[in-house]
Amino acid sequence: MDSTVAIPSSSATVSRYLRPKRSFDSMVILWIMLALLLMFLVINPLCRLIIDSFRQVGGTDFTLANYVAAFSRARHIQAVINTLWMASFASLIAVAMAVPLAWAVSRTDMPGRDWAHASVIAAFIIPTFLGAIGWMLLAGPNAGWLNRIFVGVFGTATGPFNIFSFSGLCFVIGIYAFPLIYVFTRSALDLISTEMEEAAAVHGAGTLRTMLKVTLPLALPAILGGFILVFLEATALYGTPALIAIPARFNVATTQLATFFEHPLRVEVAAAFSMPMIGVTILLLWVQRLMLSNRSYVSVSGKGGDRRLVRLGPWKWLLAAYALLISLVTVLLPLLVLLHCAFAKAWGQGASISNLTLDNFHHIFFEQLTVRQSMWNTFSYAAVTATACCTLGFGIAYIVQRRLLPLTPVLSFLTLSPVIIPGIVLAICFYSAYAGAPFYLYGSSAIIMVAFVTRFLPIAFVTVGSGIRSINPELEEAVRILGGNRLMVLRRVVAPLLKKTILGAWILTFVLATRELSTAVFLSGPETRVISVLTLDLSEQGRYEILAAMGVVLLVVTTVVVLAGMRVLGRDFMLRQP
Amino acid sequence: MRKLNLKGLTKRYGALAVVDHIDLSLHEGEFVSLLGPSGCGKTTTLRMIAGFIDPSEGTIEMNDHLMSSPAASVPPERRNMAMIFQSYAIWPNMTVFENVAFGLRARRLPNEEVHRRTTEMLSIVKLDQLSARYPNELSGGQQQRVALARAIVIKPEVLLLDEPLSNLDANLREEMRGEIRRLHDEFNMTTVYVTHDQSEAMAISDRIAVMNQGRIDQLDAPVDIYRKPKTRFVAGFIGRTNFIEGRLNGDVVNFSGFNIARSNLGTTSIPAGVSTFSVRPQSMEVLANRPTEANQLDIPGKITTRTFLGETWDYTFDSGSGLRLRVVSSPAITLEMNQPVWLRIDPAQIVRVEDSPAAA
Questions:
Q1: Given CB atoms, is B121 within the 8 Å cutoff of chain A?
Q2: Is A21 a residue whose pLDDT tops 80?
Q3: Is the CB of B216 less than 8 angstroms away from the CB of A1?
Q4: A256, A425 in Cβ contact below 8 A?
Q5: Number of residue pairs across A and B with CB atoms under 8 Å?
Q6: Which of A210, A472, B83, B135 has the fewest CB atoms lying closer than 10 Å?
Q7: Mutate to test the interface with A, among B21, B48, B56, B78 (most CBs of A within 10 A)
Q8: Which residue in chain A is spatially nearest to B208 when comparing CA positions?
Q9: pLDDT in tens, A314-367
């Protein structure tokens, strides 16, 4: 060892900028604030749900009676079984639509691929409850358009379609869930190198054989991952079952949960009944993670490179017809019938000039205060939710990514944990935690917005987090060493580089919040109803014209926001997998 | 006055000392490289100098002001240093001009001065034509120049460079190396340069600190590092070498097959007993004919392996009595395998090396 000999500690002057080691207090305060916030948003509601499930109805004693009450009745068990079947069939329908379409768009020379892709995006931005209303108008047993056309053409006494049935329910759920599987499948297909397919072709496999033996198996984990998410979404769905299953006189788990909120109110039983739903969600999300992380199986690595499209010959027209059918069923027909209904004096009167009117819009904007109030609520809650989610999501993601605080994995885990809670169960959580003493938030707009923030925070957190991960920390260190402080790092580098990501996250959470039904359903009071909740009431009252007009307003706002987002962020910003 | 002074600098992560009691001091305008394999602690040392990491022990002083200690530190933005990062860290949302002007603006200099100094600096690094461009429109070499200009324009007390050339291709690397040295000489900046590339460090530095497992094995001028490596690690890391063992016997050192008087060796301080010596392949010569000169150390033997590398021949010489050495010869001297040859060694180029303090 021979380095320069250290001269005995000289009179090193103390710089006026010398700061004691990172002041403990400010960091501790920040940590405590975040912990309290997550306690309020996540831990307390979840704990209250679990505690309530063991609490005597209306009392305070420990009991297992809620679980007995929840699971001892054949009716309740049947609802759970119905849910499992419904989710399975709906997911299968979604796969049957999504996989051929994704393959056709990603890999083949099918005509109209861009158009097919655009129609998937359109299906994605139609709220499921509006799609369900559309199909109620199309395939209601007597007055439904399709039935009347059928009767008109074939002269039968009644039409063949009945949306108010188990199969009708599965169908409607499936056709609005398929975009998710499409996104998963498509991005997997886009990553599979065509060289693998060419290798199969060189070794003598034809197009069909290559697809079945090489392409599909490679994309299978992604397809199954999408299947699981759709399955979970279907089990947690409340709106479509409430619109279709209740008139059809059968129950699924979510509508069964809602009955516990009717008179007599039994939140404790509802809490017990929701435990298996959380269990199933955790299990399936774990399986999905396992499957998608098993990269040794999915050899979809690297960029796809130059790709050759599969030539389908005459079959391409068949596939195009299938794509057209999908877009008719998911977008064109429901939109057409909703638009007609919104501008009709009476939707059953058919399409004639004399039936056209703007009264419905006049009604919802100037006369029907409930509707106007609910539209205002919807958009203002969604804007507040999106802003809060993006702010919190950015703050937490930045702290986690840059390890500014100790125990960041805990912060990250807590922020993400609401994904295991189905929306309707989250509503029960917040009802248990904040509806009564000591908060008395029931019927306030605050409880809805707080629940929305909890529900959508994981999405904002993941989206913004992946944006932060793409910023090289050296870009930030360069600011510091050249004389800028932390604030300047955020203002001059992080914010400009992240603004598009944050805008994308804002739009995504805004759009999701405008259509959120299940989280709002038990939390909204007379003054705080949102469009989705009001939809159920109006549908029950049979006031479809008003409902359709309100739906058109929601669709127009959503579409404008999404199109604005597309202009800035590119066509597929909504479809990116987190 | 010592410009920059590291005293007993240590960084521990848990039980592992990544940087282990480093002492290093630079005088004004000196260019020192921290050279070592990955994981030797050189980047951690640099980041402690910059203020991104606080030391676990020891201090960093600049101009006799305390910068870092376990108890208190000056934050990076108050050190008036500049750093060039491996990724260049050019801000993609700012133009070339804005990138270079950043440090001046952060110092709240008047607009006119910011403009004048930035423009001046851009012309020094030949980027004046590109000042309105965004970084994604620049080549790798141009981005590197932006990083250099951005760092130098603020006239930093100390310039820090973290493997700045590792992302460039070979030709550009040589050119930028010259550019860095030229700018250093022009502005007389005290510079700490981190690299794992020994030829880069040789070419550019006034002194090199060879780091090994968190410690400085040797701190010397490039020529001395090469010719008089102090440890086995330094001898092996800088260039290639042969290690031979020798035993001190009175005033003579006995090697396997030959003896040399202690006073003729490259290192004269040799402890009693067996020591390890380094002798470079380039410091020996193989002769095809029996030499006639007296007073030379010539050892008979033969060539057992040979590889032609274009610029050199790479031979393995075997004396037949336990001495095997790698020797490098000019391509003009082609020797056949297994023919008798004579190996000529310059005793002054045999140097004793210690086992590194931290040798594994």
A1: no
A2: no
A3: yes
A4: no
A5: 124
A6: A472
A7: B78
A8: A3
A9: 889 999 999 999 999 999 999 999 999 999 988 877 777 888 889 999 999 998
Residue of B nearest to A1 (CA): B217
What residue of A is the nearest CA neighbor of B107?
Answer: A483
Residues on A contacting B at a C-beta cutoff of 8 Å: 1-6, 9-15, 17-22, 472, 474-475, 477-485, 488, 492-493, 496-497
Interface probe with B: pick from A481, A493, A497, most Cβ of B within 10 Å = A481
Sequence-ordered list of residues with C-beta below 8 angstroms from that of B47, at least 6 positions apart, any chain? B53
Is residue B9 domain-shared with residue B114, that is, in the same domain?
yes
ipTM: 0.85
Q: CA of B248, closest CA in chain A: separation in Å?
A: 23
What is the residue range of B116's domain? 2-228
Given this model, what pLDDT does residue A349 score? 79
| B71–A20 CB contact, under 8 Å | yes
Length of chain B: 360
- For residue B18, being part of any structural domain is answered with yes
Determine contact: B11 vs chain A, CB below 8 A.
no
- How far the first Cα of chain A sits from its last, in Å, is 52
- Are residues A223 and A95 in contact, defined by beta-carbon separation less than 8 angstroms? yes
Neighboring chain A residues of B106 at a CB cutoff of 8 Å: 479, 482-484, 488
For the cut 50, the answer to whether the pLDDT of residue A2 exceeds it is no
Nearest CA in chain B to A497: B93
**pLDDT reported for residue A159:** 84
Cβ burial of B324 (10 Å; 0-12, 13-18, 19+) is: middle
3-state helix, strand, coil in chain B (%, to 5): 30, 35, 35
pLDDT number for residue A22: 57
Last residue of a domain, one of B228, B259, B280: B228
- Cα-based distances in Å from B289 to A258, B298, B315, B326, B342: 103, 11, 16, 19, 7
pLDDT digit string, tens, across residues B216-261: 999 999 999 999 999 999 999 988 899 999 998 888 898 888 888 8
- pLDDT attached to residue B336: 87
Same domain, B176 and B259: no
Q: pLDDT (tens digit, 9 = 90+) per residue, A521-560?
A: 889 988 999 999 999 999 999 999 999 999 999 999 999 9
Q: Which domains does chain A have, with CATH numbers?
A: 30-39+358-578 (1.10.3720.10), 64-301+311-351 (1.10.3720.10)
How many domains does chain B divide into?
Answer: 2
The CATH number assigned to the domain holding B349 equals 2.40.50.100
Q: At what angle are helices B96-106 and B111-124 packed, to 10 degrees?
A: 130
